[in-house]
Amino acid sequence: MTNTIADIETSDLILVTGSNTTENHPVLSSFVKRAVLKGKKLYVIDPRRVGLTDHANKWLRQFPGTDIAWINGLMHVIIKENLHNKKFVEDRTENFEALKEIVEKYTPDYVENITGIKADDIIEVARQFAKASVASILYCMGITQHTCGTNNVKSLANLSMLCGHLGKPGGGVNPLRGQNNVQGACDMGGLPNVFTAYQLVSNDEARKNYEKVWNTTGMSATPGLPVTEMIQKAFEGELKSLFIIGENPLVSDPDLNHVRKALANLDFFVVQDIFQTETTAIADVVLPAACFAEKDGTFSNTERRVQRVRKAVDAPGQAKQDWEILCEIARKMGYEMSYENSQDIFKEIASVTPSYKGITWDRIDKIGIHWPCPDEAHEGTPILHTTQFTRGKGMFHAIDHTPPAEEPDEQYPYILTTGRVLYHYHTGTMTMKTDGLNMLSPECFVEISSTDAKKIGLDTGSMVDVSSRRGKISAKLKVSSKAVDGTVFIPFHFAKAAANELTNAKLDPIAKIPEFKVCAIKIEPGTV
Amino acid sequence: MERNIIAINENELTFEPGETILEVAQRNKIDIPTLCHLKNTIPTTTCKICLVEIKGESDLVESCATKAKQDMIIFTESSKVIKARQKNISKLLASGNHNCAIRDFDTNDWTSFQLSVLKSDGKEDLCPVWGDCELQDLAYRYQVITRGMPLNECKYETERANPFIIRDFSRCILCGRCVKACREIQVNNAIEFGYSGKDLKIIAKNDAVLKDSDCVFCGECIQVCPVGALVPDKAFRDGRFTDTKKVRTTCAFCGVGCQVDLFVQNNKIVKIDGADVDLPPNNASLCVKGRFGYEFVASPKRLTKPLIKKDGKQVEASWDEALDLVARKLGSIKEEFGPDSQGFLTSARITNEENYIAQKFTRAVLKTNNIDHCARL
User: Fold this and answer.
1) Domain range holding B324?
2) Taking CA atoms, what residue in B is nearest to A244?
């Protein structure tokens, strides 16, 4: 997030898109709902009638995969009506003319045609967003999990910059990160192209510095493979070994049939986890790890706040902390890697990570600090881009709408979109160990509109077979007012009816994120 | 020039315009007891415990709803205040099944004490929050003796028809904190005051049980309940919250990073609460997963020993055996097929320190940049 969670409540207008906030980030959603109680405006733009729509001034419903079109539509109206923030555009951005040119054709009627959102609603939201003293954009995987995910995000940034809603309290472009430490995993260089703090592996200076600190030579300057391509390389036989920590791709990855074949093709497969999962089951070696309550360390949350994790109980049996296991393997492979404790590791992190340099465990003992925090006297940075952007001036990207990789047709007439429910988390490895959560959300379901259910001739509770070009699952139908005709939602938590048997593994060319949010399916009365 | 100063118990204190007496007191660590006030919500003044005396005014005022005014002289524990509090605490004790603080049964431990209480009022459950109850604390603090006070029978049955929250209406003092938490803090709008007069009750929509209502089991209501009317079901069955160790940490589910307090007893988490109301990012709020989804930690299904595949079957192995195998295989694959034939998926679930070690291992030992995690999934 460019801004903080607390900031949301101080915004004048909040635009939430591609985020089922009340179920996926429930506590954060309270900040949005309280802002509404205080009279602030809320617009929700989402293919499903998600919980937040009940609190919104208006819910705009776009066809899945048409986000660039409505965002360009808003900008078309804003520029046409001369409502954009001229000073901000002039002082803080560049390439405005290219943006202006590309959004020219995105008239409200043109946009209605692509997105299904009424032209009048486009005009209303555009005016309100531009006129708000400060507006915040919140988005989540509904924006990113598309073949045009990167362009969706850039479009939102365009919109915010156009109105000067960046770099100030209550504004910003705010991705809501879905996992406790996904921000930290990225910050720490758990990515194929960067070391910590996003220093490029291809940058000779950065790499040399790491080689010095790590007392090694010959590190690769070539960016590695992202997870989605590792799977493909394993399938093709080029990737021979895979080491996985705390992840269950045999439920969470797209097109499971393909993933299964790919993993089976590995020469050597190690999984380090806290439970047996669908993935550990096929591993050559399974290593038992300690969970969050059994270790000391830090997590970085969605607002870039580095916070302490503290040991409360002992790990079961012989389970060890993940870092201890890796250090031991490194030593066995002839590389000396030893630390007294996790705090020692953090000190090394601070020494090679500019944005974490000023953070110490002592400083975050009571309250976390937002990176960047360049030195120990620095209080951290709750709001990014207050005076300039990372690259200096903010760059407008001229972006055109592109359709999803797979659209419904006669054979597969429905659009499938996937996500989570309130009571479960990801592949359920953790939440499905709590009986109460299983009682409240016991099994997979196929969320469908009442009209579509009638068309199929079935009702809530009926078993249906859902299939795509890639696979087939069986689950119970659930008629819901959240669903809109033609679009079906299935949560991906449940291994027994894994939605990812159906999903499309087509990737965004830049971020390599799969298109979980749109694929074509058919629904037939169940055979079970 | 305007002097924004008041005196509380002869201490001169500044105030911000609009601040209530209670807020000024709390900010300055002066304890004014209250059972209904809930920070960041509109005061309800239902409990009448936070009464204070203002010099020159004949009536006591509710400090939660009275704004500080210039040169006010306030006493929070005057004899008049104490008498009023005693009276109001008595009323609350008499309003339901709150006999824990009173009768002089001839017993030494709390269980037999409560058993004798049960006998006298026909109630089957021991109060789960005995010793951890704000009303009971106040009864002791102000020495409220309610011997001989008639017990009010509760017409509403205790609700247990959901996995997480026990609602014991016989212990509810109708302070309204749970309603505030639900409607003004979490804004889940699941519960409200229902019926009126003697029938007054906290109800979910249409007086349905919680599981058939709009309740999403965030449990904020339990956390703010000053008495034993709302208690966490599992924790209640597991035992009492005495002798627990409290550990402040960060929730392990979504990316919000809620600060939580884990209550630990015998190496087991028995309860989770949101941390301080003033502590970001969650200001003491939690969701259903963060508050109740902790059973996985102590699950008997946890992996406890390394496993290695032998003849197509995973069997237990020693750490040495397992890690020797990993080191040998990774070494030989690197040798034979080159560093980039290996991949590593670190995790958004583990700590920064561990992620750092994972990339260090991949880049410095395996000598490849084939490292990623589930950020996109």
Assistant:
1) 303-328
2) B345
Give the nearest chain B residue to A196 (CA atoms): B356
What is the Cβ-side half-sphere exposure of residue B293, based on CA atoms within 13 angstroms? 26
Global pTM?
A: 0.96
Which of A181, A426, A506 is the best substitution to test chain B (most B C-beta atoms within 10 A)? A181
User: Domains in chain A, start-ordered, CATH in brackets?
Assistant: 6-176 (3.40.228.10), 182-370 (3.40.50.740), 414-525 (2.40.40.20)
- Is B340 within 8 Å of A190 when comparing Cβ atoms? no
The model's confidence at residue B115, banded by pLDDT at 50, 70 and 90, is: low
pLDDT at B106 over 60: no
Of A37, A188, A433, the CB nearest to B187: A37
What is the predicted ipTM?
A: 0.97
Q: Hey, is A43 helix, strand or coil?
A: strand
- Six token digits for residue B300: 């008997």
Residue B202 lies in a domain: yes
Confidence of residue B376 (pLDDT cuts 50, 70, 90): confident
DSSP assignments along B224-272, one per residue? H-SSSSEEEHHHHHH--STT-EEEEEE-SSSTT--EEEEEEETTEEEEE
Smallest Cα–Cα separation from A386: which of A198, A164, A135, A130?
A: A164
Evaluate if residue A426 carries a pLDDT over 70: yes
Q: Cβ of A506 under 8 Å from any chain B Cβ?
A: no
Q: Please say if the pLDDT value at position B238 is more than 90.
A: no
Given an 8 Å threshold on Cβ–Cβ distance, is A328 in contact with B323?
yes
Chain A within 8 Å of B160 (Cβ-Cβ)? no
Contacts of A188 in chain B (CB under 8 A): 352, 355-356, 358-359
Q: Does A150 touch chain B (CB under 8 A)?
A: no
Residue B111 domain-assigned (yes or no): no
- B40: nearest CA partner in chain A: A34
Overall size of chain A counted in residues: 528
Give the N- to C-terminal CA distance of chain B in Å, as an integer.
60
| Counts of helices then strands in chain B (DSSP H, E) | 10, 16
Tell whether A351 lies on the interface with B, counting CB pairs under 8 A: no
Those of residues 7-26 in B touching chain A at CB distance below 8 A are none
How confident is the model at residue B117, as a pLDDT? 61
């790919």: which residue's tokens?
A: A262
Q: Which residues 277-296 of A have a C-beta within 8 angstroms of B?
A: 280-281, 283-289, 291-295
Q: Count Cβ atoms below 10 Å from residue B367 Cβ, excluding itself.
A: 17
A513 in contact with B, Cβ within 8 Å: yes
Closest chain A residue by Cα to residue B251: A180
Both tokens assigned to B53? 């005396």
Cα–Cα distance measured from residue B8 to residue A91, given in angstroms and rounded to the nearest whole number: 52
Residue of B nearest to A200 (CA): B369
Identity at A492, one-letter amino acid code: F
Residues of A in contact with B294 (CB under 8 A): 293, 434
Q: What is the CATH number of the domain that holds B196?
A: 3.30.70.20
Residue ranges of B 245-264 with Cβ closer than 8 A to chain A:
245, 247-259, 262, 264
- Distances in whole angstroms, Cα of residue A149 to Cα of each of A48, A513, B103, B165: 18, 7, 68, 40
Q: Report yes or no on B203 lying in a domain.
A: yes
Q: Is A58 buried (19+), middle (13-18) or exposed (0-12) by CB count in 10 A? A: middle
Shared domain check, B256 and B227: no
CB contact under 8 A, B333 and A27: no
Report pLDDT digits (tens) over A59-72. Answer: 999 999 999 999 99
Q: What is the pLDDT confidence band of residue B65, given thresholds at 50, 70 and 90?
A: very high
Which residues are CB-neighbours of B359 under 8 A, at least 6 positions away?
Answer: A188, A189, A190, A195, A196, B346, B371
pLDDT tens-digit profile of B320-351? 999 999 999 999 999 999 999 999 999 999 99
